[in-house]
Design goal:
InterPro entries: Cep78, Leu-rich_rpt, LRR_dom_sf. This is Centrosomal of 78 kDa-like. This protein is of the alpha/beta class and 208 residues long. 43% of the residues lie in helices and 15% in strands. It has a single domain (5-76, 98-207), classed as Ribonuclease Inhibitor (Leucine-rich repeat, LRR (right-handed beta-alpha superhelix), Alpha-Beta Horseshoe), CATH 3.80.10.10. It has a 5-stranded parallel β-sheet. Strands 3-4-5 form a 3-stranded antiparallel β-sheet, with no helix packed on it. Helix 4 links the parallel strand 1 and strand 2 (70-74). Helix 2 packs antiparallel against helix 4 (55-63), helix 6 (137-149) packs parallel to helix 7 and helix 7 runs parallel beside helix 8. The longest helix has 17 residues, at 105-121. The radius of gyration is 17 Å and the shape is globular.
Length: 208
């Protein structure tokens, strides 16, 4: 199906409609975990609950969107260091489950490419939260390209993403001139004294 100019423009400002249309084309149902907060121009969801086959409509709707205000994708998956087994922790209950697709390098790569595109075209995105998602070097490189072009973001969080000093170096270079940014969450990012020095230098030259 060939999109008209009007359809492309509508898809860029109406995430819900675009997402539902893409789901229909793929033959899958829109996920309530994705659509629950769209009335507030917000996608805030447990990414562990998104099956592999349902990621494409989400990513394709995200990459062109101009009007979302919040994108928050959270993973609660935890690896058991001692046994190599995995656990999913939800509240006080713990049960073994198959590793969710959001933990795979292919999905995180596609996710970061989509967010990169969104950061470049958005007119309203103020909050970007990636929580406990295993971001690899190429993921961060794509994110940094989007962050360096963005003029709207106010809060950025990589909580428990364990990006380390090298990952933070990539991100800090990208947001150095992002004057709209007001807060940055690096909790659980495995920064050492070198990362702390980079953060101190970033604070000196920015409004964070």
């Amino acid at each position: 199906m060939i999109e008209t100019v009007r359809q492309r423009q509508q898809n860029a400002v109406d995430f819900k409609s675009c997402y539902e249309n893409l789901c229909a084309l793929q033959g899958c149902c829109p996920l309530s975990v994705v659509t629950a907060n769209l009335g507030d121009e917000t996608v805030d969801c447990n990414a562990d609950r998104i099956p592999l086959q349902d990621w494409n409509p989400i990513l394709n709707a995200t990459r062109i969107n101009k009007h979302l205000k919040v994108i928050a994708l959270r993973s609660y998956w935890q690896e058991k260091v001692n046994t190599g087994q995995s656990e999913f922790v939800s509240g006080l209950t713990t049960c073994r489950k198959k590793t969710p697709p959001i933990r795979s390098k292919d999905v995180t790569y596609k996710l970061c490419r989509a967010i990169k595109d969104c950061l470049g075209v958005t007119e309203q995105l103020e909050v970007l939260i990636l929580q406990n998602i295993p971001l690899r070097s190429r993921d961060l490189n794509y994110l940094s390209k989007g962050l360096s072009r963005n003029k709207t973001l106010k809060h950025l969080s990589f909580e428990n993403c364990q990006i380390g000093d090298n990952g933070f170096e990539v991100i800090s270079s990208a947001i150095r001139n992002c004057y709209s940014l007001q807060s940055l969450n690096l909790t659980g990012c495995c920064l050492t004294w070198r990362g702390a020095e980079m953060l101190a230098n970033l604070i000196k030259v920015s409004m964070i």
